[in-house]
Model the fold of this input.
Amino acid sequence: MSDNRLSIGKAAEVSGLNVETIRFYEKEGLVPEPVRTEGGHRLYSKDQVARLVFIRRSRNLGFSMAQVRQILSLVDREQISCDAVKSIADDHLEDIRARIADLRKMERTLNRLSQECSGEDIPDCPIIDALQPR
Done:
């Protein structure tokens, strides 16, 4: 590839994303539109691939698209502020902790219901009873 640019397939391989996801991020404006060959094939620069990796890592940590967009806007304006990024991360961490608390409640409830259930082949089931509206 010219100028060490990568095809979308190679960019997908290097970034750990699939081609459709890369196209989606491009459409959403998270990745600048790549240059194209005369035949219309996308060619990604090293910086664009690094950005794709950044987005993938952020998404793997559960950051929302809006949060990723916020962080990238700080990077793009070269106004990176640890304080601003920390604030976004702390808000996300708070959400994660709330979800974990909710999951623990679900676990306790399902565990209790499972223990109440005899597991026998009978029509009376405490799990069904608990799920049905009264």
